[in-house]
Amino acid sequence: MSPLQVIFILVSAITLGAALMVVTTRNMVRAALWLVLTLFGVAILFVLLEAGFFAVAQVIIYIGAIAILMIFAIMLTRRIAHDPGPQINATWPIAAVIALVVFGLIVFFVQGWGKAASQPAPFPAGFDPLRELGVALVSANQYLIPFEIASILLLAALIGAIVIAWDKK
Amino acid sequence: MTTETIIWLIPLPPLLAFFLIVLFTNRYRGVSHTIAIGAAFLSWLGSMVVFLRAIQIHEFGKHPFQSSIPWLPLGESWFSIGVLIDPLGAATLFFVAWTILMIFIYSVGYHNYGQPEGDHDRKGLPPHGATVIDQHGHKHKVPSIEPMYSRFFAFIGLFAFGMYLLVVSDNLLTLFVGWEIMGLCSYLLIGFWYGKPSARAAMIKAFITTRVGDVFMLLGIAYLYSQTGTLNYRAILYNQEVLDTLASTPSYVAGLSAAALIGILLFIGTVGKSAQFPLHVWLPDAMEGPTPVSAMIHAATMVSAGVYMVIRIFPLLSAGSHHGALTAPMIILSIIGAGTALFAATIAVAQNDIKRVLAYSTISQLGYMVAALGIGAYIAAAFHLITHAFFKALLFLGSGSVIHGMEHGVLHTDDHVDPQNMLNMGGLRKKMPITFWTFLIGGFALSGFPLVTAGFWSKDEILADAFGHAHYGVFITLALAALLTAFYTMRQITLTFLGEPRSKAAEHAQETPWTMTIPLIILAVFAVSAGWVGIPEHFPVIGGLIPNWFHEFVGETLLEKPKGVEFNPIPLLTSILVALGGLYGGWMVYRNLKAGEIDPLEKTLGPIYLVLKNKYYFDELYHLIFIRPSIWISEVFTYLWIDRKIIDGVLHLVADVSIKVGAFLRNYIDKPVVNGSGDLVANVTKEGGRSLRVIQTGRIQQYLIMALFGFIALSGLFYFIIQRMGMQ
Amino acid sequence: MIPLSWYLIFAAALFCIGLFGVLSRRNAVAILMGVELMLNAVNVNLLAFWRYLTFEKMAGQVFAVIVFAVAASEVAVGLALVISVYRRRQSIVADDINLLKY
């Protein structure tokens, strides 16, 4: 067991534990905070995958924007957040069963797949994934168009969010 | 121009006149009558030329004018038609041309050409007079012009064409064509004033009665054609072999030979056309037409055509007779002819309408001709045909003149009496002298006044023949008929012209214009002189002075020229006696009849008079036997029973069945099955939808659960398929 | 050192936890949190595949970038909707938002 593997197991355990807490906590603020922890764990995993950019992007976008947004939303719908009623609805057993079955399926498929046990190849010299990503995102013959469309999507979402949440009083 | 060409052209001018008037000049009255009279004149001219040339030819009977063209292709051979003028034809052509021309000229005056249009005149009704205002402001009613003036001339033009065609033909087919054209024209002209219901009934009666005769005649023609293969006169009637063959071929009908049967069938056509008993009923009713029509039909042309035809086929009728014995058709002719002559004469005695008397007189005289032919007196029959045409035409035109004069009186005095009833007339000899004298001549000719009238010579010859060949039954019947003829003729003349006027209209009668009186005068000349061409050779005193040209000439028509009969004083005395006796009797009885008095004959005969006046009730009999059953068959049997009940019944049944089948299909198959299955599908879908829609709870999480169920199932399936593919 | 399968299994577990959260939570915001977890699991998957199998091509990374963008916009709009619904109905219980039922 190499140190990398140990770190991996540790981080993934924490992350999964936090995720479980997210979906089971009664208190919404606590759920949001558990979500933050989960997202952190995922960011560390990104680091392990040598996708440093994504780790940072994860922290900035997900934790810095999305999780905060969730906390805002929770705050704004506060009265109900204190609702002592059950936070789990009546069909949770079926949901649990399904989740487990899906997990089992995926694991089964993964195990049956030949390349699952492959090891990462080291980066060649001078290979900068971030630089390559940047080039790919703005090259006309690579992924320029999806990039631009993503920006339009964000614009649309922006406008949409404003319009939907507009208080027409 | 060769004679044959002229003969071909003779019938054409009147036909052309008909078409021109009908198509172009109907509105121009003067032009129409000019065209018509011009056409009649042209045909007259042609006929005279042909006649004059014919009488100059020696043994004309053996070398007649003939010309034919092949007309109808019949397989290997052709049916030819053409023209033939032999002696009989030439003589007939002579009188036909003269009488037709006289009648055409007469019609101009008769229909009041030059008079103003009537006040209330309508087409289809006789003209009723026009009111004119003279220079003093007095209103007079004068005769008005016939509204359908041109139409009349068109029709008589067609009529003339038919007659000329019949006379010049050389075969029975074109004779029949001319025959039928005249039948059509008689229909059109009898019903000329179609607005009168009596005229309409009369025109149909005439057409249908003659049609009965025509059917049998056509059968005879067909039978003749089937036996001989031709209808040409010269080929059949002038050919002893053909006649002998026909006489010896049995026809399997009543033991008659083929010749006899053909003769009888053709004679039935004459019975219809020349109004012999029993098909005589149409002729008196035909007086509904204008008087020139009566003259044309009943004197000059149509009835003469019937007798002409039967004279023409005399060789056929007498075929097979040995030594002058009468064959079966000849016996039938004698009986019918003599019987009709007496029968019609008895009816004529009791008629009061001036034209009816003449109508029955015509029937009677035609009976004379038929009877003469029946006893074999060929020449006598032809002679009487010709003389009768002249004096009967004269008498009819004269009666028309009388009626015109009476109508003038009626209009003048507003005394609305029937201008045709002799009981309203009287003393007209002073008012209408020309009419009187010509009518007198015609009447004497009809009665057979001795020596100076044509009728005497022809009638005497018939009686002489009858007596001379010992046909005493025919002789006595004809003598009696002659007595009655003289009686009723003098009755007619006395009532009309002699004595005092019996009504105001008669007092104011007027002589008719020259267009009407000139033809009367010309015909009167013929009525006197036509007889002198046929004076028998053995006649006391004058016989032999003038050769019996007629006998010589017309006798040539037959293969064997008939011999003249030996002179016998008995028939001569008989005919003089009956003529003078009848005339005297008629004058005596009626000369003092006053207005309003009953006919003396009526007083003496009582109920018999009523029978005679009603024509022996034959019209009523025919109505009972033929007309009512026909009407019953058409109205009840055919219309009600067959047409309405059976045919319509079948149709209604089909309709009902169709509707019922349709309703059944609709209610039991269409609605439940077709509609039902459609509705079933819809309902099942609806119910299925209703029960399934509970899935849609609106809750996203449940939707998601269901989606994941599906996902799991699909992935399992997918996996197994891939596994199987991997294994294989 | 770390086999690919470990990452994949981890991602699967995270995904299923997120799935459970989506299916069983009452609060609408909690559901959205579950969705976030699922999206993160996807991202992990993508980047794992990128690193282990085709790190020369940038397709995996670009995909992950897009997923980021999508997640962000989706959360924004989703929360705007939740707030709007809350204003209307004074409730953010997902079960109560059932107007599209039969």
Number of helices of chain B: 29
Treating each run of at least 4 consecutive H or I residues as one helix, how many helices of chain A? 7
- How many domains make up the coordinates of chain A? 2
Indicate the percent of residues in helices of chain B: 55-70%
Please, could you describe this protein's structure?
- The complex is a heterotrimer of chains A (169), B (728) and C (102).
- With 169 residues, chain A is an all-alpha fold.
- Chain A is 73% helix and 0% strand.
- Chain A folds into 2 domains: 1-80, NADH-ubiquinone/plastoquinone oxidoreductase chain 6, subunit NuoJ (Four Helix Bundle (Hemerythrin (Met), subunit A)), CATH 1.20.120.1200; 130-169.
- Chain A has 7 helices and no strands.
- Chain A starts with a helix and ends with a helix.
- The model of chain A has no long low-confidence stretch (mean pLDDT 87).
- With 728 residues, chain B is mostly helical.
- Chain B has helices at 3-9, 12-23, 29-55, 87-110, 149-168, 172-190, 197-228, 233-236, 240-248, 258-273, 282-285, 291-300, 302-312, 314-317, 328-348, 354-374, 378-413, 428-431, 433-447, 454-468, 472-497, 504-507, 514-529, 549-555, 569-590, 600-605, 607-613, 618-692, 700-727, and strands at residues 65-74, 77-85, 130-133, 139-142.
- In chain B, the strands form 2 sheets. Chain B has a two-stranded antiparallel ribbon.
- In chain B, strand 1 (65-74) and strand 2 form a beta hairpin.
- In chain B, helix 4 (87-110) runs antiparallel to helix 12 (291-300) and helix 7 (197-228) runs antiparallel to helix 10.
- Chain C is mostly helical.
- Chain C has one domain: Helix Hairpins (Orthogonal Bundle), CATH 1.10.287.3510.
- In chain C, helix 1 (4-24) runs antiparallel to helix 2 and helix 2 packs antiparallel against helix 3 (59-89).
- The longest helix of chain C is centred in the last third of the chain and has 31 residues, at 59-89.
- The model of chain C has no long low-confidence stretch (mean pLDDT 89).
- Classes of the chains: A mainly alpha (169), B mainly alpha (728), C mainly alpha (102).
- Chains in contact: A-B, A-C, B-C.
- Chains A and C meet through helix 1, helix 2, helix 3, helix 4 and helix 5 of A and helix 1, helix 2 and helix 3 of C.
Short description:
The complex is a heterotrimer of chains A (169), B (728) and C (102). Chain A has 169 residues and is mostly helical.
